[in-house]
């Protein structure tokens, strides 16, 4: 037995010790055993998801938010810090925006109603992932989740009934997350009411552009507005083919110092052919630089620029060609895909995955050339967006499997692909380390069930 494996075995407890460990650390004994299984396998299991095992073991390190060490709230806070923080950092780094998820902790420390509203959303997120619920609503809602929703509503009402009460930052954030919760459980009527109240509150403050606060409310509102615009409404679908390109942007003026020659060759060719917009090209340059300098760093440095200083088409350029829009959506999803395995219907950037899944099957790919390769890469990113880790191994959802089959119908060449073929495709664009093996494995599963 190697010294490395012997070291791992020294950490394994007896059943009695395991039980005591779970009591002392608030970790179920079953989950502690799962951790030991991972150690025995040398940590080599693909896409091990610590959140699925610890159930709220890691929580508020500074104890600035009351209650984050208990039950439902501990699980919710861990999802915030362990999954939304890194994915938000990834988007912030590429697009030059601020990661408002980190500022949300400050609001939770200020306000009990915000804490309850955020808790019910993120705890329901955990329920959806571990029970594999449908996108139209949760199968199971624990009493603890409903309790936090009720507390958020009750405390918000008490807050607004006070003399001279105003729609302050905490009230707006509470309404926002109550609407998100209602939308997530499939109650569109209640969500519409909350969105209407949210609009009235923001209008009373003079709109997002006039909101200033230490809680980052303006960033939160503008981010949601930007993400909600990343829908099929902004992605026009041609009748037959992705060609010809509608817009040919001017050639990108850059030198070797800004990373132009070090970026993936296919992205560079795409822009020189006039098939990409400058907004997406800027993101490609930032991502290429980060992956070259910091290949193993999971958390990216938080950007400080304000969203309102950016163009209206921050995520998806509205005036670009169809392929440029699809690439923009794929870049957004790639940043999230590479930083978290929790990519169910609860990801804050899920709209990009939905849009890609709806639009791609309606697009006829070009017969050859860099545009065809680019569209193929976009397809693979879309498929990868529908993987979810609910056990020690990740698996594709039904949507992801169906998308893989539709992709093979439009790109017959992938029917005989193996892992090295997925790797070669990634070298032309972007791939995180595990992507080729994961996609090759899932493709074999899909082919066998086709």
Automatic annotation (TrEMBL):
Region called Disordered, residue ranges: 1-25
Q: Which protein is depicted?
A: Transcription factor domain-containing protein
Q: What is the lineage of its organism?
A: Eukaryota, Fungi, Dikarya, Ascomycota, Pezizomycotina
InterPro entries attached to this UniProt entry:
Fun_TF (IPR021858)
Q: Where is the composition biased (Basic residues)?
A: 1-16
């Amino acid at each position: 037995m190697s010294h490395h494996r012997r070291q791992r075995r020294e950490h394994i407890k007896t059943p009695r010790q395991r039980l005591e460990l779970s009591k002392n650390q608030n970790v179920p004994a079953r989950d502690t055993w799962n951790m030991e299984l991972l150690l025995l396998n040398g940590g080599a299991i693909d896409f091990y998801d610590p959140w699925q095992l610890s159930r709220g073991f890691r929580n508020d390190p500074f104890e600035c938010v009351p209650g984050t060490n208990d039950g439902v709230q501990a699980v919710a806070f861990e999802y915030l810090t362990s999954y939304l923080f890194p994915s938000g950092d990834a988007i912030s780094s590429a697009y030059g925006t601020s990661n408002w998820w980190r500022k949300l902790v400050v609001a939770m420390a200020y306000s009990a109603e915000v804490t309850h509203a955020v808790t019910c959303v993120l705890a329901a997120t955990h329920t959806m992932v571990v029970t594999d619920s449908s996108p139209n609503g949760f199968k199971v809602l624990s009493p603890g989740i409903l309790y936090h929703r009720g507390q958020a509503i009750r405390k918000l009402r008490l807050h607004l009934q006070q003399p001279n009460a105003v729609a302050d930052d905490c009230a707006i954030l509470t309404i926002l997350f109550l609407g998100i919760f209602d939308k997530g459980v499939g109650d569109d009527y209640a969500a519409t009411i909350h969105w209407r109240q949210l609009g009235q509150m923001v209008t009373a403050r003079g709109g997002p552009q006039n909101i200033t606060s230490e809680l980052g409310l303006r960033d939160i509102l503008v981010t949601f507005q930007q993400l909600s615009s990343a829908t099929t409404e902004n992605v026009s679908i041609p009748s037959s083919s992705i060609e010809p390109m509608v817009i040919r942007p001017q050639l990108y003026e850059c030198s070797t110092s800004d990373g132009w020659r070090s970026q993936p060759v296919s992205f560079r060719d795409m822009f020189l052919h006039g098939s990409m917009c400058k907004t997406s090209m800027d993101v490609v340059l930032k991502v290429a630089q980060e992956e070259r300098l910091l290949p193993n760093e999971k958390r990216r440095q938080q950007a400080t620029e304000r969203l309102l200083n950016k163009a209206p088409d921050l995520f998806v350029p509205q005036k670009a060609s169809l392929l440029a829009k699809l690439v923009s959506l794929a870049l957004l999803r790639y940043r999230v895909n590479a930083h978290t395995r929790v990519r169910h219907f609860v990801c804050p950037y899920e709209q990009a995955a939905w849009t890609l899944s709806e639009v791609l099957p309606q697009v006829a790919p070009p017969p050859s050339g860099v545009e065809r390769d680019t569209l193929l890469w976009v397809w693979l990113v879309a498929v990868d967006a529908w993987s979810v880790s609910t056990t020690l191994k990740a698996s594709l959802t039904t949507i992801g499997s169906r998308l893989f089959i539709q992709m093979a119908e439009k790109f017959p060449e992938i029917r005989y692909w193996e892992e090295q073929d997925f790797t070669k495709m990634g070298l032309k664009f972007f791939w995180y380390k595990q992507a080729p093996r994961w996609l090759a494995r899932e493709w074999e599963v899909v082919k066998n069930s086709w």
